[in-house]
């Protein structure tokens, strides 16, 4: 069997703990097979490798051929626990894992990592009810700055429980210039943990985008024109964290709405795009129903547009939306690991009179609202939509926050606070 026995972590950089570490171990202690999914190069393999004694890298031609020829026999020959890396290169391996798990329900047998959403082809997905999944995203600042404990209460949990009483900020909090520098860097480990110049970082991110529209899209059997798909990415990046209509997006990209919808699904399947759905409530009326599009990584979106710090600062609208996208990315990893898992939405009244960036249902009785403002000293005017939402929901509104780029942390009104973005990870 052409598998590699793991003696040390096969990475160029010493492994840095991730938020998902403890959750992944807990699941692997209880289930026979766990799939770790997320964007390519987000660090899935580096994390999963710590729980597996052997690894089968299906992106290596020899190993892929062995599994393609007879996946059942390949699994029988492999020692366990086994990490099956880049499973999408040989989709047949999923059915083989299913057959093993059907015979033996013992926990901790298989870890699978991949950068393709399994539901994209129901013929290849045989893991329902047999394989549990963990979503991983590019690094967030809580991981990068090694804020301990990683398994401590999430920001949203602290906000809902006690407002700003248990919040802290560093002695030298970032200003908007530092926030922009960090969001331009992005959260891919290859960039974060290497001392690359800005030029080298841009080259890496641009190459990532080139591979995305050629190799990765082709891997899914997509027949999309790479040139049109690349242009569509530019349009999405320009509208990152915005809410243009589907028609507006498709017209700007020069494609039909049907093609645009196909592109959106393709990019979601590759974990590049996150569409946060509109919130629905029987207490509120005339709410918009279209989703809000976010790039998973703000640095990748900026690279698609060839943005620099100067160009972002020169456009207040662009600055505000990229600040929103970066802040939302800091929460995405925590949301995926919270139990019970909260649901995130955005809210906009059809008239545009009220708009809240994130409305998060912690459970059936508690709602948290968040607004992202690239300003240094928010006032109650910046919180007017949160105050409206609080008045509409009454006791169900647990807390709200204007997440901003300044230093101050203070109460704006009953259950509504001004909180620096860095408090999400300190």
Structure explained in plain terms:
The chain has helices spanning 20-28, 44-48, 61-69, 71-77, 92-103, 141-144, 155-162, 176-185, 189-192, 198-219, 226-238, 246-253, 257-269, 298-304, 309-313, 316-337, 384-393; strands spanning 4-5, 33-37, 54-57, 82-85, 110-114, 132-135, 273-276, 292-295, 343-348, 355-361, 367-373, 397-404, 410-413, 416-420. Helix 3 (61-69) crosses helix 4, helix 10 (198-219) packs across helix 14 and helix 11 (226-238) packs across helix 12 (246-253). By secondary structure, the protein is an alpha/beta fold. A hairpin with a 2-residue loop joins strand 13 (410-413) and strand 14 (416-420). The longest helix is centred in the middle third of the chain and has 22 residues, at 198-219. 43% of the residues are buried. The chain is built from 17 helices and 14 strands.
The major pleated sheet works out as: 6 strands, mixed
Cα-based radius of gyration, to the nearest Å: 22 Å
Strand order of the largest sheet: 1-3-4-5-2-6
Which strand-content bin applies to the residues? Answer: 15-25%
Shape: globular
The portion of residues assigned to helices is 25-40%
Number of helices: 17
Number of DSSP-assigned strands: 14
- Average of the residue pLDDT scores: 90
Low-pLDDT segments, ≥5 res: 5-11, 120-124
Q: Alpha-carbon distance between the termini?
A: 46 Å
Query: Which class do the helix and strand fractions yield?
Result: alpha/beta
């Amino acid at each position: 069997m052409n598998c590699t026995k793991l003696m040390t972590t096969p990475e160029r950089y010493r492994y840095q703990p991730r938020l998902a570490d403890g959750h992944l171990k807990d699941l692997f202690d209880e289930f026979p097979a766990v799939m770790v999914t997320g964007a390519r190069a987000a660090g899935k393999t580096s994390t999963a490798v710590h729980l597996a004694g052997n690894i089968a890298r299906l992106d290596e031609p020899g190993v892929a051929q062995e599994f393609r020829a007879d996946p059942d026999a390949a699994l029988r020959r492999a020692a366990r626990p086994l990490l099956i890396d880049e499973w999408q290169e040989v989709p047949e391996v999923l059915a083989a894992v299913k057959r093993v798990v059907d015979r033996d329900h013992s926990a901790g047998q298989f870890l699978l990592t991949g950068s393709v959403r399994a539901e994209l082809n129901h013929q290849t997905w045989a893991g329902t009810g047999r394989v549990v999944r963990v979503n991983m995203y590019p690094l967030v600042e809580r991981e990068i700055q090694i804020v301990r404990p990683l398994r401590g209460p999430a920001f949203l949990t602290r906000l809902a429980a006690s407002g700003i009483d248990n919040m802290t900020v560093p002695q030298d909090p970032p200003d908007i210039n530092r926030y922009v520098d960090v969001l331009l860097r992005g959260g891919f480990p290859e960039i974060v943990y290497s001392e690359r110049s800005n030029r080298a970082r841009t080259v890496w991110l641009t190459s990532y985008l080139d591979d995305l529209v050629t190799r990765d899209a082709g891997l899914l059997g997509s027949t999309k024109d790479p040139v049109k798909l690349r242009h569509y990415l530019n349009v999405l990046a320009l509208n990152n964290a915005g809410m243009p209509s589907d028609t507006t997006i498709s017209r700007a990209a020069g494609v039909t709405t049907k093609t645009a919808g196909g592109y959106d699904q393709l990019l979601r399947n590759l974990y590049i795009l996150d569409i946060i759905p509109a919130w629905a409530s029987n207490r509120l009326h005339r709410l918009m129903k279209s989703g809000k599009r976010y790039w998973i990584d703000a640095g990748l979106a900026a690279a698609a547009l060839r943005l620099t710090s100067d160009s972002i600062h020169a456009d207040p609208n662009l600055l505000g939306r990229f600040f929103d996208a970066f802040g939302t990315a800091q929460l995405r990893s925590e949301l995926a690991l919270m139990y019970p898992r909260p649901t995130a939405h955005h809210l906009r009244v059809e008239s545009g009179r009220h708009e809240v960036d994130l409305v998060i249902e912690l459970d059936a009785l508690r709602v948290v609202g968040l607004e992202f403002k690239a300003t240094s000293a928010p006032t109650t005017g910046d919180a007017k939509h949160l105050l409206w939402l609080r008045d509409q929901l009454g006791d169900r509104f647990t807390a709200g926050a204007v997440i901003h780029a300044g230093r101050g942390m203070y109460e704006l009104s009953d259950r509504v606070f001004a909180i620096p973005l860095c408090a999400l990870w300190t």
